[in-house]
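Dear Dr. H.,

I hope your travels went smoothly. While you were away I took the liberty of generating a structure for the chain from your last submission, since the lab meeting agenda had it listed for discussion. I wanted you to have the full record in hand beforehand rather than looking at slides cold. The sequence, exactly as received, is reproduced here:
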Amino acid sequence: MNFQVTVLKVLVSYPDGFAVMEDLKRDMAILVTSGREWADRTTRLAARVPDLNIFSQGLVERISGGWRVTSKGREVLEFMETLPAASEPIQTPFVEQVAESSVMPDAVPPLRQPFDRAKRRLERAQRRREARERARVNAS
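The corresponding predicted structure, in token form, is as follows:
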């Protein structure tokens, strides 16, 4: 499920929604190895649409040498990223219902956390150590 959300996020970042496989793999590798925050975020997004299947539902199409996000895929991703009001419970409609609804509530940007240079430095060092350990394990 997280893989499919990551594919949608990467494809939407390209101007026409199309990426060749090499670019898609590179961008996904960067995001997947960026730390626990990305995995947590994609898990939260995937929970909004539990029956997500990007190919069978027509959210992504395969085109010679790459993949392209469809307009339906953009709508589903927009729905997943829309924050519910504080008093409303999170609902998980089917993908067909999301694509049919034409009115989407405006997304509220998350509050910015205070900048903590030391914390970021420690997190980067931890990610580097983890990456070195993964490389060492994969090399053996």
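Two observations you may find useful: The chain has one domain: 2-111. The domain at 2-111 is CATH 1.10.10 (Arc Repressor Mutant, subunit A).

With kind regards,
E. W.
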